[in-house]
């Protein structure tokens, strides 16, 4: 469906949507007009690409969520179960102890047959990566339970394989991953090894056959590790060899040279984790090598360089986590907007007629809650799309900038779009706290995003402890100078000049603070500096999102349709709100980080325990 639509419309070369043609969202789940606007109408962020494809593919994605989005609460309520006794045919390649909601398979099949798994296929649609991320934003907007995470993980596993796998492995496994025949996972974590993957105990020993190893150990938290829906599951798995942490491809069913499926690999699913949210994607713990002494795995990349290779997948997944969080924020905004328009509370006196009932959207504090959600979710989405665009660039400077942005893209949307969801629930009052509305599910689902793919704490250490000093500080300086250029560009337009001055001042203070903290670390006061890493992460994140907002506000204000368009005016208002409410806090945080040592430093475990 998607492929046909895309091909037909590529030929027609639809002219790009202009700002004045913006119309309100046609789906309760997503806002494809805003996504299209962010992709094509905000200069300096997204590398330009053929815009004729954008609306057709986003519309196809919107049709998909409109048709199937009602299923998501089922995946939330009917959590996956672990029932090994129910496997009727152990010889079947798809035999699995995991029982999912029966609609899961048909939904995932629909996704495949609509062509969404093949958007990046060079022989197929070959869409720009940034556009595929926007499509993922639309499809995931209705499936916050994470059920489509099966295909996100698969796509990222396929990309990792293509980047680092040997030609033999690529030819055997890649096509089946992108045509939707098999699914993929990332299997890093173990019970004792989460944030610190150096602690993994799973071991791999060479069998003597080139590239082949026997793997023994146990994995924890693997999303989609098994499901019984498709014939094979391909794990991207970390294990230790004598050379150190290495990356392996571990199939559920071995694959013969002619591509047919061979014997079942030696691993066992031992159970599922019962989660507060994201229940559409079974999360498993499992052990390898219990029967024969080792599951078969194939080395990807060099021995001992597994983490370096795995970062390719982790970084892509981190962009997807950011998108997932931004989408939850925007979905919360849409759900709470719909409610706020209809919900009547209070009456306003009017001369010579009965008091007029007031929809809550007219109360200032409710407007504030809605504006805050808009500022966070659309700022976050712009940041994610920008990162996606950088990641498809081959320019060295863009790659360097992306290194700084990755921890921000992962962590800022997860923290602040969860905050947005808090306000979405608040708009609904007591109803927001019930299961009659989707917001409580969205909030629970979004809560995962601060945890997986590296917790917020780990992202903050990565940013302050590593990225600020990357390439002798060149990466972070590049970030600061790109923000500075944006300030310069928007300094003379009356609509953005005040924002520009505020952002320039916050950026200057951030630069001083960064230098101060980096100098401290260089002088050996690493723990003292890192005690402030979370505040630092948010200060940098606020500046980055401030940058995203000034670009959006500048683009909106410069549009000839600005005076008549509430959409465009709304962009400027959301930017102003973000600066007034959030960016304004950055200078205060910076001076605290510069001028005082955090009390955290003098607090010991014993102080907290007594
Ligand atoms: C639903 C779900 C799905 C997941 N899916 C996958 C998956 O598909 N594949 C996979 O491999 N993993 C997966 N994970 C695992 C996930 O990546 C880890 O949970 C995460 O990295 C944190 O590890 P942990 O749970 O062991 O927490 P810990 O590492 O024990 O951390 C606990 C707390 O301590 C903090 N902390 C730890 N070390 C430090 C430090 N050095 N300095 C400061 N603070 C620190 C952390 O920030 C955190 O707040 C999933 C997890 C969940 C919950």
From TrEMBL:
Does tRNA processing count among this protein's keywords?
Answer: no
Superkingdom of this entry's organism? Eukaryota
- Per its record, how is this protein called by name? Acyl-CoA dehydrogenase
Cofactor(s) the protein needs:
FAD
Hey, which family's this protein in? Belongs to the acyl-CoA dehydrogenase family.
Recorded GO MF terms: oxidoreductase activity, acting on the CH-CH group of donors
Q: Which residue ranges does the record assign to the Acetyl-CoA dehydrogenase-like C-terminal domain?
A: 479-595
Boundaries of every Acyl-CoA oxidase/dehydrogenase middle domain copy: 186-285
Keywords, sorted A to Z: FAD, Flavoprotein, Oxidoreductase
The residues covered by the Acyl-CoA dehydrogenase/oxidase C-terminal domain are 304-461
Taxonomic lineage is: Eukaryota, Sar, Stramenopiles, Ochrophyta, Bolidophyceae
Pfam families on file: Acyl-CoA_dh_1 (PF00441), Acyl-CoA_dh_C (PF12806), Acyl-CoA_dh_M (PF02770)
């Amino acid at each position: 469906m998607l492929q046909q639509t895309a091909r037909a419309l590529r030929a027609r070369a639809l002219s790009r949507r202009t700002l004045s043609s913006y119309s309100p969202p046609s789906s309760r789940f997503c806002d494809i007009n805003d996504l299209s606007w962010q992709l094509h109408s905000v200069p300096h962020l997204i590398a330009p690409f053929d815009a004729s494809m954008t609306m057709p593919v986003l519309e196809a994605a919107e049709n998909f969520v409109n048709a199937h989005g009602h299923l998501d609460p089922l995946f939330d309520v009917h959590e996956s179960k672990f029932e090994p006794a129910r496997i009727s045919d152990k010889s079947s390649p798809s035999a699995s102890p995991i029982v999912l909601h029966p609609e899961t398979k048909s939904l995932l099949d629909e996704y495949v047959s609509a062509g969404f798994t093949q958007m990046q296929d060079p022989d197929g649609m070959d869409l720009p990566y940034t556009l595929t991320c926007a499509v993922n934003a639309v499809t995931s907007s209705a499936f916050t339970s994470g059920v489509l995470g099966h295909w996100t993980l698969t796509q990222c596993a396929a990309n990792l394989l293509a980047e680092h796998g040997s030609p033999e492995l690529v030819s055997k496994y890649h096509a089946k991953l992108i045509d939707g025949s098999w699914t993929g996972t990332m299997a890093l974590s173990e019970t004792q090894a989460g944030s610190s993957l150096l602690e993994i105990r799973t071991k791999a020993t060479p069998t003597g056959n080139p590239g082949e190893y026997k793997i023994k150990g146990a994995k924890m938290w693997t999303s989609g590790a098994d499901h019984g829906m498709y014939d094979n599951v391909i794990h991207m798995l970390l294990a230790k060899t004598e050379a150190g942490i290495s990356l392996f491809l571990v199939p559920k069913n071995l694959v013969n040279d002619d591509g047919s499926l061979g014997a079942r690999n030696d691993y066992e699913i031992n159970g599922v984790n019962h989660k507060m949210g994201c229940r559409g994607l079974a999360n498993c713990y499992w052990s390898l090598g219990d029967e024969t002494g080792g599951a078969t795995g194939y080395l990807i990349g060099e021995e001992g360089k597994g983490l370096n290779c795995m970062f390719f997948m982790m970084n892509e997944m981190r962009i997807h986590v950011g998108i997932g969080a931004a989408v939850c924020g925007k979905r919360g905004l849409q759900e709470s907007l719909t409610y706020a328009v209809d919900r009547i509370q209070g009456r306003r006196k009017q001369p010579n007629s009965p008091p007029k009932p007031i929809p809550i959207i007219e109360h200032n504090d409710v407007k504030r809650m809605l504006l805050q959600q808009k500022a966070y979710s659309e700022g976050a989405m712009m940041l994610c799309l920008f990162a996606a665009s950088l990641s498809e660039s081959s320019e060295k400077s863009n790659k360097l900038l992306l290194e700084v942005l990755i921890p921000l893209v992962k962590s800022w949307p997860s923290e602040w779009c969860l905050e947005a969801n808090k306000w979405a629930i608040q708009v609904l009052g007591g109803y927001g706290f019930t299961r009659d509305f989707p917001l409580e599910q969205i909030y629970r689902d979004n809560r995962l995003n601060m945890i997986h793919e590296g917790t917020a704490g780990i992202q903050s250490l990565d940013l302050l402890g590593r990225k600020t000093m990357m390439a002798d500080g060149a990466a972070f300086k590049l970030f600061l100078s790109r923000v500075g250029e944006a300030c310069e560009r928007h300094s003379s337009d009356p609509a953005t000049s005040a924002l520009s001055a505020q952002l320039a001042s916050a950026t200057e203070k951030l630069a001083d603070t960064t230098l101060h903290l980096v100098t401290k670390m260089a002088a050996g006061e690493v723990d003292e500096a890192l005690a402030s890493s979370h505040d630092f992460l948010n200060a940098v994140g606020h500046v980055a999102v401030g940058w995203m907002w000034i670009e959006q506000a500048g683009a909106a204000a410069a549009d000839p349709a600005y005076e008549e368009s509430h959409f465009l005016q709304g962009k400027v208002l959301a930017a102003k709100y973000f600066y007034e409410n959030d960016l304004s806090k950055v200078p205060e945080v910076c001076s605290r980080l510069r001028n005082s040592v955090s009390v955290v430093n003098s607090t010991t475990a014993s102080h907290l325990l007594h």
